[in-house]
Amino acid sequence: MGSSVAHRLGSLSCTDLSDAMDRVGIACQCAGIMPLDRSFSLVGQAWTLRYAPIGHEGGTVGDFIDDIEEGSVVVIDNGGRTDVTVWGDLLTATASRRKISGTVIDGICRDVDRALALGYPLFARGNWMRTGKDRVRLEATQEPVQIGGIRVRPGDWLRGDGDGIVVVPQVSLEAVLEVASEIHEAEEAIRAAVENGADLREARAQYNYHALQTRR
After folding, report:
1. CA-CA distance, 75 to 204, in Å (whole number)?
2. Where are the domains of the chain?
3. Alpha-carbon separation of residue 4 from 9, 60, 63, 93 (angstroms)
4. Where are the beta strands (DSSP E) in 82-135?
5. CA-based angle 151:128:40, to the nearest 5?
6. What are the start-end ranges of the E strands in the chain?
7. Residues 155-190: pLDDT tens digits?
8. Does residue 1 carry a pLDDT above 70?
9. Domain 29-168 coded CATH 3.40.50.150
10. Over the stretch 30-73, which tens digit does the pLDDT of each residue have?
11. Which of 2, 72, 79, 113 would bridge 47 by S-S if both were Cys, CB 3.0 to 4.6 A apart?
12. What is the pTM of this model?
């Protein structure tokens, strides 16, 4: 099932899925989380981590990468911090070798050149070189986290492209895919009609464009 779902999600854009989830009433758009390169694209189920500021016990970054299955998406909640990184060169190289689908960070990363060279998808609030070692500690794995204001549970599906990241809850997957496919097909039909000489206003009216994402 996983490969079939990944294929179906990968055939849809983040905008298709965003509009679909607006219609079914699901908050899904991770605000401020963008690809480090506009060509980056990912699909996969969430494997979650949460970092917290250090206390008297000191920092830990964790060697979690060896536990993550092929095809998963690493989802890291660092509280939106932009002053310390929680992902760098060694993690990118290992994740790429293990065929992990990508990494999504509510925070920042570093060593972007390695990700670009390997074509490994990184989505974050930006990049900077300052290490998180001795500045943050790994607080939890495989628990619900917050990414760009959206709750992500282990096993939820993520889709990322040049427009950012959306989260599709596992429990709503089929409903979202059905609506997103309908929206995608309607917009493709409108595009084709315009390319064949139709007025945009007429084409939109024919396919009920202005209500495609409206809550029902």
Report:
1. 37
2. 1-26+170-216, 29-168
3. 9, 37, 30, 27
4. 102-106, 122-124
5. 60
6. 34-35, 42-53, 73-77, 102-106, 122-124, 136-141, 145-147, 150-152, 157-161, 164-168
7. 999 999 999 999 999 999 999 999 999 999 999 999
8. no
9. no
10. 999 999 999 999 999 999 999 999 877 777 787 899 999 999 99
11. 72
12. 0.94
Give the torsion through C-alpha atoms of 148, 23, 13, 87, to 10 deg: 20
> Which amino acid, 107?
G
Length of the chain in residues, anyone?
A: 216
Better pLDDT: 81 or 54: 81
Percent of the chain at pLDDT exceeding 70: 99
The pLDDT assigned to 3 comes to 75
HEC secondary structure over 160-197: EECCEEEEECHHHHHHHHHHHHHHHHHHHHHHHHHHCC
Contact 143, 156 (CB under 8 A): no
